[in-house]
Design a protein that fits this description.
Distance between the termini of chain A: 74 Å
CATH architecture of the largest domain in chain A: Sandwich
CATH topology of the largest domain in chain A: Immunoglobulin-like
Largest interface: A-B, 49 and 40 residues
Largest sheet of chain A: 4 strands, antiparallel
Shape of chain B: elongated
Membrane topology (chain B): Multi-pass membrane protein
Number of helices of chain B: 37
Number of strands of chain B: 28
Strand order of the largest sheet of chain A: 1-3-6-5
Helix content of chain A: 10-25%
Oligomer: heterodimer
Radius of gyration of chain B: 38 Å
Distance between the termini of chain B: 44 Å
Largest sheet of chain B: 9 strands, mixed
Pfam families (chain B): Cation_ATPase, Cation_ATPase_C, Cation_ATPase_N, E1-E2_ATPase, Hydrolase_3
Helix content of chain B: 40-55%
Radius of gyration of chain A: 23 Å
CATH topology of the largest domain in chain B: Calcium-transporting ATPase, transmembrane domain
Subcellular location (chain B): Cell membrane
GO molecular function, one term (chain B): metal ion binding
Organism (chain B): Acanthisitta chloris
CATH class of the largest domain in chain A: Mainly Beta
Order of helices and strands of chain A: HEEHEEEEEE
Number of domains of chain A: 2
Number of strands of chain A: 8
Number of domains of chain B: 4
CATH class of the largest domain in chain B: Mainly Alpha
Strand content of chain B: 15-25%
Number of helices of chain A: 2
CATH superfamily of the largest domain in chain A: Na, k-atpase alpha subunit
CATH architecture of the largest domain in chain B: Up-down Bundle
Strand content of chain A: 15-25%
Chain lengths: ~240, ~1000
């Protein structure tokens, strides 16, 4: 009995102590930006849609069921980029870092879906999957305060040449600097990260096509890390049947 | 079969049953089918050899080295770690087959676990291999060649070819090749020390002198040495059937009992393994029912096992024990079997030899009687003067007799040595007298030269006296001086006067009465008494040209003048009484076991305090109350002197009764075989028994004892081999220092284990919380191994250097059944209190690291699956940033490092609190044990090297850590210290309270 009571008090005290120290620790943190960002100095790349399994797309262009999941994912993903959702966003000056460190309210730059051309889902609601020209969106991970230098753009290359022709939207796969820097979830609530759509015109239906996309043209965005295969690059595979 | 073996051992324990010593030569010839002159025929010898086997000792079946090695590989925690390793490999195989991205982590983990087992196994094997084989010395004793009569010819044969019935000849310097019944002997003396431990050579003849074959003079034993003379004898026993062979097989037949510390460690291993397995299985079930994949559940299981097993602890215990062993070796206790270090500490009964161990092993003059008065002499080891009153002229006369009537001489060239250390040629009592007079009178040899000896009759057993006639050193006194010493009653018979204060007075009945009283008193003290008398021969009858003839005795040998008595004893070592009283206050019973006469044994026992001044034996009570011994209430007697003859007729119940009812026991006149019976009797009482011994025949008792202590100087090789410990100075007092060290190491091992177990909880909790709350993994398996086998090793060894908290020699020996090394208080306090506090501190650091990088604690709950998914490379943190898998993994390693650092920092506090179990740290002294600080610095140093030096080696999962994270756990470390001080304060304040019972380990 006494033992139980003792441990009740003892653990009660420890729990209180734990809660208190955690509370003290959280008080020292800002709710806007994390204290340290040294573990993510350079952003990773990711694609959408993202297949459940490893990054491998398998679909039959004549069978809508086989790619409906990808199309749905793209639609959902792009919903937040709709004009209606961007009413508060402003048009920023292209090609320039949009520095608003001093502003109390951080504005978000508008990203026009029409920039994604045939991959915007406006003209082709199937994002090219039914035509054998599937769209894949490439995006760069959000990192607070990151200011890319140079002219960052996405470039994708198939492992074997000639198996696929690649179109980029916006042109050259450019990522506009006006979307940077990012100020974090709480300050920058309506922020939309820039997207690059990659349309793959697949020539061969026989084999799996391996494609690697990289971010190029910016000295402070790494893309060759030995250990991190997703830092500034991403590799995926596509196999289309008819 | 076991029964049969037991029966065989029982048989061996019985006194030797042999009747060859009773038989006449012709009966022997008939019995063995041999002829004294011709020996056996070669053909017959070959037949017997084929029947009996060679004359050599069968070595015991040695466990093959590889089996010993493999035993180490599966002992202790090894099985658990092997299971962990196998599971790692299995999951590696499965992952490899599934084509997962990083299956090699599990392969490496398995390899590391296997390496840990193999390395600790090799370490343990190496420690064990150091302890030596008991048979080694027995086989060394086998003689090489023997001179045998066969086919009526003398032949040199290898001794192992000897058979029963062979006639062998031996001469001085030979080893006796088998057990031999002598049929002729010329001045033959044998050294039986390898058998009995008595170093005095014993004469051998062909006479049947004693019923006991061990004491009769016509049998010489295998492996003893013939010192001088020659002899011929019939071989009556060969090989394993010889006395020494029986003892050897008895020693190997006597089971090697598990040492108390081995039992304690086993108990502890079972406990920890039990905890590990039950938590492991419990969480395996939980994780399976939480729909984790089986493979993941298995990996959790490995983590839980690794976290729970203190991998480095068994090696630490070994190192601590060997450190103590080294310390004891400096104090003259050489420990052969490491675990014996602690056994000595839990000893509750010491069965000690008398001669050499309790005593100085040399005769020394203890008392004098002259002028109707008894004087005491100094018997200490380093006497330089004698304090008794030497003014009486009687003393002058007595001292002259003592000096002159003595054939012993110092070996030349020892003038610079202290008198007591000089080597003397002569028997034990003459040596005592020579040294005694040298101490008092100075240069004895010069005095003898001035008093030239003209005639002498040496001591013999029929006369029982020794006599010599001298010229006097007074140039004016031309008389001869006749001096005589011998058995007091024989000397007195030859006297008609007695010297009182330098004057000769007639020896009337009153004076004879006084002599008798003194003689009885000295004899009653167990001392060997000699009487001394002299006579100045009248000058007219014996002019200086007189020719003395010792054969015809042409001089008076009666009507002499009695001068005094001297009594001698082998006195106790001066350190022994103190050591015995220390044993007494430490609750250790000291039992004397000796071959000596009961009176001498009792006297020594009384003088060293084995029998205390106030206690009485049954016989004493009977004498005091003047009633027959049978009427005395045996319960009233605290002391007992048991004669070997009585012991022989006792059954084990009677022996138990004696051991139970008397606190002070002396066994006198015991045969070496009876020592084993006494040891077993003590063990039946549940006691941990230490036994001292030196002869070959002591080896079964030494082996049977919980700790056998062999004498380093007097001990035979066999005794040293059978023993667990060798006493380099043969001094009983050294045993007591050994006991103290043994008790200290037991306490300190408790501290070491408590220290080591604590952090296991801090290593285990991460796994449990990881499984239940699905947070990112707080600590890696490899990291845990770095704590267990890296930072924690030196500190836990450092605790072995801790000084005792209180006088450990004032408490009773620990109870084998009750006072466990790891009791539940220790486990509960370490696991459920300090361990949990450590975990809390480490988790605070962990959450701090994650929060400051962007993952607030609320974000971390339940993220495990996505966090660990290789496909998710845009994992969002609390601030909207996105992380790739590798970035998360790197953060996770930072978390490992932070968790590791926190445990290390808190282990510093844990180390400091473990210095004491009851006293305040400040009373113990924070800086007295310097090694603790070496431990602390090593701990922090290793952590710094791992974090900053090896932080870039990915396989180790360490990352360079921001410096401030080292201090997050510091408040918790301080809390641990304060809480433990509080615990100790309450324990000291309220002894026996609920708190004391539950919190004192």
């Amino acid at each position: 009995g006494l033992i139980l009571l003792f441990y009740l008090v003892f653990y009660g005290f420890l729990a209180a102590l734990f809660t208190f120290t955690m509370w003290v620790m959280l008080q020292t943190l800002s709710s806007d930006i994390p204290k340290y960002r040294d573990r993510i100095s350079s952003p990773g790349l990711m694609i959408s849609p993202k297949p459940d399994t490893a990054l491998e797309f398998y679909f039959n262009k004549s069978d809508s069921d086989s790619y409906s999941e990808y199309v749905e994912t793209l639609k959902t993903f792009l919903a937040s980029y709709n004009e209606s959702k961007q009413s508060q966003n402003i048009d920023c000056t292209p090609g320039k870092i949009f520095d608003q460190d001093d502003a109390a309210v951080k504005k978000a730059c508008r990203f026009n879906l029409s920039d994604l051309g045939q991959c915007s889902g406006k003209d082709d609601t199937n994002f090219g999957y039914s035509k054998g020209t599937p769209c894949v969106l490439v995006k760069m991970n959000r990192i607070i305060g990151l200011k890319p230098e140079g002219e960052p753009h996405i470039q994708c290359t198939p492992k074997e040449e000639g198996t696929v022709e690649i179109n980029y939207f916006p042109r050259h796969g450019m990522i506009d600097l006006m979307y940077f820097p990012y100020y974090g979830k709480s300050l920058h609530a309506h922020y939309l990260q820039p997207l690059v759509a990659v349309q793959l015109a697949i020539n061969s239906t026989k084999e799996e096509i391996a494609i690697e996309c990289k971010i190029l043209g910016s000295p402070n965005l790494k893309n060759e890390d030995d250990r991190d295969k997703f830092l500034g690059r991403i590799a995926f595979k596509v196999q289309m049947t008819e | 079969k076991g029964n049969k073996k037991k029966k065989k051992t029982e048989e061996l324990k019985k006194e030797l049953d042999l009747d060859d010593h009773r038989l006449s030569t012709s009966e022997l010839e008939k019995k063995y089918g041999t002829s004294i002159n011709k020996g056996l025929s070669s053909a017959r010898a070959a037949e017997i050899l084929a029947r009996d086997g060679p004359n050599s000792l069968t070595p015991p079946k040695a466990t093959p080295e590889i089996v010993k090695f493999l035993k180490q590989m599966v002992g202790g925690f090894s099985i658990l770690l092997w299971i962990g390793a196998v599971f790692s490999w299995i999951s590696f195989g499965i992952q490899l087959a599934q084509g997962a991205e990083s299956p090699f982590d599990n392969l490496y983990l398995g390899v590391v676990l296997a390496l840990v087992v193999i390395l600790t196994g090799i370490f343990a094997y190496y420690q064990e291999a150091k302890s030596t084989n008991i048979m080694a010395s027995f086989s060394k004793m086998i003689p090489q060649q023997a001179l045998v009569i066969r086919d009526a010819e003398k032949k040199e044969l290898p001794a192992d070819q000897l058979v029963v019935g062979d006639i062998v000849e031996i001469k001085g310097g030979d080893r006796i090749p088998a057990d031999i019944r002598l049929i002729s002997a010329q001045g033959c003396k044998v050294d039986n020390s390898s058998l009995t431990g008595e170093s005095e050579p014993q004469s051998r003849s062909c006479d049947f002198t004693h019923e006991n074959p061990l004491e009769t003079k016509n049998i010489a034993f295998y492996s003893t040495t013939c010192v001088e003379g020659t002899a011929t004898g019939i071989v009556i026993n060969t090989g394993d059937r010889t006395i020494i062979g029986r003892i050897a097989s008895l020693a190997s037949g006597v089971g090697n009992e598990k040492t108390p510390i081995a039992i304690e460690i086993e108990h502890f291993v079972y406990m920890v393994a039990g905890v590990a397995i039950s938590i492991g299985v419990l969480f395996f079930i939980i994780s399976v029912s939480m729909r984790y994949k089986i493979l993941d559940s298995i990996i959790f299981l490995i983590g839980i096992i690794v976290a729970n097993v203190p991998e480095g602890l068994l090696a630490t215990v070994t190192v601590s024990l060997s450190l103590t062993a080294k310390r004891m070796a400096k104090k003259n206790c050489l420990v052969k079997n490491l675990e014996a270090v602690e056994t000595l500490g839990s000893t509750s009964i010491i069965c000690s030899d008398k001669t050499g161990t309790l005593t100085q092993n040399r005769m020394t003059v203890a008392h004098l009687w002259f002028d109707n008065q008894i004087y005491s002499a100094d018997t200490s080891e380093d006497q330089t003067t004698q304090p008794f009153d030497q003014s009486s002229p009687s003393w002058a006369a007595l001292s002259k007799i003592v000096t002159l009537c003595n054939r012993a001489e110092f070996r030349p060239g020892q003038e610079n040595l202290p008198i007591m250390k000089r080597v003397v040629v002569g028997d034990a009592s003459e040596t005592a007298l020579l040294k005694f007079s040298e101490v008092i009178l100075g240069d004895v040899m010069n005095i003898r030269a001035q008093n030239k000896k003209v005639a002498e009759i040496p001591f013999n057993s029929t006369n029982k006296f020794q006599l010599s006639i001298h010229e006097t050193d007074d140039p004016n006194d031309k008389r001869f001086l006749l001096v005589m010493k011998g058995a007091p009653e024989r000397i007195l018979e030859r006297c008609s006067t007695i010297m009182i204060n330098g004057k000769e007075e007639p020896l009337d009945s009153e004076k004879a009465e006084a002599f008798q009283t003194a003689y009885m008193e000295l004899g009653g003290m167990g001392e060997r008494v000699l009487g001394f008398c002299h006579l100045y021969l009248p000058e007219n009858e014996f002019p200086d040209t007189y020719q003395f003839d010792t054969d015809t005795m042409n001089f008076p040998t009666s009507n002499l003048c009695f001068v005094g008595l001297l009594s001698m004893i082998d006195p106790p070592r001066s350190t022994v009484p103190d050591a015995v009283s220390k044993c007494r206050s430490a609750g250790i019973k000291v039992i004397m076991v000796t071959g000596d006469h009961p009176i001498t044994a009792k006297a020594i026992a009384k003088s060293v305090g084995i029998i205390s001044a106030t206690s009485e034996t049954v016989e004493d009570i009977a004498k005091r109350l003047n009633i027959p011994v049978e009427q005395v209430n045996r319960r009233e007697a605290t002391a007992a002197v048991v004669n070997g003859m009585e012991l022989k007729d006792m059954n084990s119940e009677q022996l138990d009764e004696i051991l139970c009812n008397h606190s002070e026991i002396v066994f006198a006149r015991t045969s070496p075989q009876q020592k084993l019976i006494i040891v077993e009797g003590c063990q039946r009482q549940g006691a941990v028994v230490a036994v001292t011994g030196d002869g070959v025949n002591d080896s079964p008792a030494l082996k049977k004892a919980d700790i056998g202590i062999a004498m380093g100087i007097a001990g035979s090789d066999a005794a040293k081999n059978a023993a667990d410990m060798v006493l380099l100075d043969d001094n009983f007092a050294s045993i007591v220092t050994g006991v103290e060290e043994g008790r200290l190491i037991f306490d300190n091992l408790k501290k070491t284990i408590a220290y080591t177990l604590t952090k296991n909880i801090a290593e285990l909790c991460p796994f449990l919380i990881y499984i239940i709350a699905s947070i990112p993994m707080p600590i890696g398996t490899i990291t845990i191994l770095f704590i267990d086998l890296g930072t924690d090793i030196i500190p836990s060894v450092a605790l072995a250097y801790e000084k005792a908290e209180s006088d450990i020699m004032n408490r009773r020996p620990r109870n084998k059944r009750r006072d466990r090394l790891v009791n539940h208080q220790l486990a509960v306090y370490s696991y459920l209190q300090i361990g949990i506090m450590q975990s809390v501190g480490a988790f605070v650091t962990y959450f701090t690291v994650y929060a400051e990088q962007g993952f607030l604690p609320s974000t971390l709950l339940g993220v495990r699956v996505n966090w660990e998914s290789n496909a998710i490379n845009d994992f969002e943190d609390s601030y909207g940033q996105q992380w790739t898998k590798y970035q998360r993994t790197y953060l996770q390693w930072t978390g490992y490092t932070a968790f590791f650092v926190s445990i290390t920092i808190q282990q510093v506090a844990d180390l400091i609190i473990r210095k004491t179990r009851r006293n305040s740290i400040f009373r113990q002294g924070l800086f007295k044990n310097k090694v603790i600080w070496v431990g602390i610095f090593s701990q922090i140093g290793i952590a710094l090297i791992l974090t900053y030096g090896l932080g870039h080696v990915t396989a180790l999962n360490f990352t360079p850590l921001r410096f401030q994270y080292w201090f997050v756990a510091v408040p918790f470390a301080i809390l641990i210290w304060v809480y433990d001080e509080f615990r100790k304060l309450l324990i000291r304040r309220y002894p026996g309270s609920w708190w004391d019972k539950n919190m004192y380990y």
